[in-house]
Amino acid sequence: MLLQSTPPDTSTYMIAGYVFFAVIMGIYLASFILRRRNLEQDLRTLESIQAESRAPVAPPPAKVKAGAKSRSARPAAKRAKPARRRVTRRK
Amino acid sequence: MQAKPTTLKVLDIASILLLAAALYLALIYAPEEATMGQVQRVFYFHIATAWTGLLGFVAAGVAGVAFLVTKDQKWDIVEVAAVEISLVFFLITIVLGSIWARPVWNTWWTWDPRLTWAAITELIYIAYFMLRQGVDDPSRRARFAAVYTIVGAASAPITFFVIRLVRTIHPVIIGGSDPSAQGAFAMSPEMELAFFFALFTFTVIFVDLFWNRIRMGRLATRVEQLKLSVMR
Fold first, then answer.
1. Which residues contact B169 (CB under 8 A, 6 or more apart)?
2. Looking at CA atoms only, how far is residue B147 from chain A in angstroms?
3. pLDDT at residue number B166
């Protein structure tokens, strides 16, 4: 019994090893979640931009009765204005 | 945006539960090693992360071959996913090994063939991402990366077999160690259970992360395509 040696105390190294593992995995998973969230945000933004650009052209304002403008017609008419300005500038 | 498949959700939960069980087996269930003490418990995760790391590097090489044969961009996404996850796992392997070596070998690092090859492998795949950053054209980038991963995949078997072929101080756990190896030990049945369970757990975690990373790669490709179509 007296000749039997007890194992050395190396628990600090063991803790260091598992803490390192937890930190690296934590950083990787956090970066993973952040990158995915950013990509989802980008996708939503790009899809809305694309949907706006594909929106149907608004009917000419002359056909709409004065004083009875619908809510949906207003933004379309506003969108049409910059295009007209560009044409006049070129002339 | 595609909803997450149920199988992947199950795999996410299974990975967390398996990791908790593997930690229990490694830290509590397995007995303390007589010569090295508590630091030997690092070995369970050291080998498991090494296994998944090398597995991913080989998988990236296979994806590289598939890309060159089919010219399908999906293989490029698979390849990047495999390399990224393996790079993280292999970094953990190297650092855990270094922490284990300090009390056992009395040094943090030595230029032993196994350690040197492991460091070379890690550097090869860090350089892989530098190569990708340096090429703008997506098809050209994918082609270069595919060739690079095929060549780089050779480093994985070399890292694995080097301790079985060359005189080294790194112990071999499965199969006989070199007489000059330091830190070798015989596993008790409890240790074997913790060891094989950790291997299984990290394989499941790898598959789970791999699948999630491939989905993210697809999303990134879609965002890139949308950006181009909006700019036109």
1. B105, B110, B112, B178, B180, B181, B182, B183
2. 26
3. 82
